[in-house]
Design brief:
Layout: E1 2-7, E2 12-19, E3 23-31, H1 33-37, H2 44-65, E4 75-81, H3 85-102, E5 106-110, H4 111-117, E6 130-135, E7 140-147, E8 150-156, H5 162-172, H6 179-187, H7 212-228, H8 233-262, E9 266-270, H9 277-290, E10 293-296, H10 307-318
Parallel strand pairs: 1-4, 4-5, 6-9, 9-10
Antiparallel strand pairs: 1-2, 2-3, 6-7, 7-8
Bound molecules: 5'-O-[(R)-(carboxyoxy)(hydroxy)phosphoryl]adenosine (KG4) and zinc ion.
Length: 342
């Protein structure tokens, strides 16, 4: 089965073709980052308009790249949520219209299920069951994953998502959006021992997390140096490093708890923040002690992309599932509402 995948939930237009026998045949992406940078964050209306402009040319491009004729596409997978409503509507309406015109089924895909399954696109993929840490701009969740669609939430952030915390801390330090990669880069020249930022909620049992206190702590630290007139480049780098250490340590502690709780031997990390090198390093050290294997997707499949949507949709379509003709766009959509595969 050959599936065309469409992702438009936020500020990236991603399109890919996945074949259940041959694997990923093509993947193209247009990022709106430069357009939104001017405003210091995503402007939803601009995002929707840009998806309209980019989507059809990208679909044409990926068909050529994947050496695929229109008649060889068996089904379409599109992100139906969660995300920005206008942005989702562009992908959903386009996917639905094309599926109708080509007389093929379409599948509404959950964006976070796409992220969760992205490591399956790599060589040596994880096998079920596993613990998953989903860390993106909008979500921070620890999940017990028994199979596709069999997800049990173990813990989540009670306030800001980890990626959101990175973006806000970056703004405080005068960095652009999205701030995660820029904090990580700045932290490389920082002294990770100069400041010690709090590791929120690690002294409490359970696997829930919180990042808003850490955000306030970062702001107070930045303001203190600003008032003294001593917020130089080195201090900014030291703050970035202290912030990154605190987030990464917190995530590692909660992941260890999830592994000990489930006794699972595999940990999957997915979503934009899973691209973070320091997170990968720290988790690698932790999993070796726990005799667990760590899995993540290649860098470009950690952040939003069409390949993960094509893949996730293909799994459900191949199992006989498909969505009705509704143009489905759900800004909020708990993963627990997803059905199992069969
Ligand atoms: O998964 P994603 O592309 O979009 C959402 O579904 O939200 O995640 C975007 C988030 C942003 O908050 C971005 O700052 C963060 O992932 N991010 C990172 C890194 N790369 C992206 N955070 C920390 N370190 C990185 N290297
Ligand atoms: Zn995402």
């Amino acid at each position: 089965m050959r599936v065309l995948g469409i992702e438009t939930s936020c500020d990236e237009t991603g399109v890919a073709i996945y074949d259940t026998k041959q694997g990923l045949l093509g993947d193209v992406l247009y990022s709106q980052v430069a357009m939104h940078a001017e405003y210091g964050g995503i402007v939803p209306e601009l995002a929707s308009r840009d998806h309209i402009k980019r989507l059809i040319p990208l679909i044409k491009e990926v068909l050529i790249l994947a050496k695929t004729e229109q008649r060889q596409i068996d089904a379409i997978a599109f992100t139906a949520g969660p995300g920005l409503i206008g942005a989702l509507m562009v992908g959903a309406a386009t996917a639905r219209a094309i599926a109708f015109a080509w007389d093929i089924p379409a599948m509404a895909v959950h964006h976070m299920e796409g992220h969760l399954l992205a490591p399956m696109l790599e060589d040596n993929p994880p096998a079920f069951p596993f613990v998953a840490l989903l860390v993106s701009g909008g979500h921070t969740q620890l999940m017990e994953v028994k199979a596709i669609g069999e997800y049990q939430l173990l813990g989540e952030s009670l306030d800001d998502a980890a990626g959101e915390a990175f973006d806000k801390a970056a703004k405080m330090l005068g960095l652009d959006y999205p701030g995660g990669p820029l904090i990580a880069k700045l932290a490389l020249s920082g002294d990770r021992t100069r400041f010690r930022f709090p590791r929120p909620m690690v002294d409490r049992p359970g696997m829930d997390m919180s990042f808003s206190g850490l955000k306030t702590f970062t702001l107070n630290t930045v303001n203190k140096f600003k008032q003294e007139g001593t917020l130089d480049q080195q201090t900014k780098a030291d703050i970035a490093a202290a912030f990154e250490e605190a987030v990464v340590d917190t995530l590692a502690i909660k992941c260890r708890r999830a592994l000990q709780h489930t006794h699972f031997k595999q940990l999957v990390i997915a979503g934009g923040v899973s691209a973070n090198k320091r997170l990968r390093e720290k988790l690698q050290v932790m999993v070796e002690k726990e005799r667990v294997t760590l899995f993540y997707a290649r860098h470009e499949f950690c952040t939003d992309n069409g390949a993960m949507i094509a893949y996730a949709g293909a799994q459900r379509l191949a199992a006989g599932q498909s969505s009705d003709l509704t143009i489905l766009a759900k800004p909020r959509w708990p993963m627990s509402e997803l059905p199992p595969l069969s």
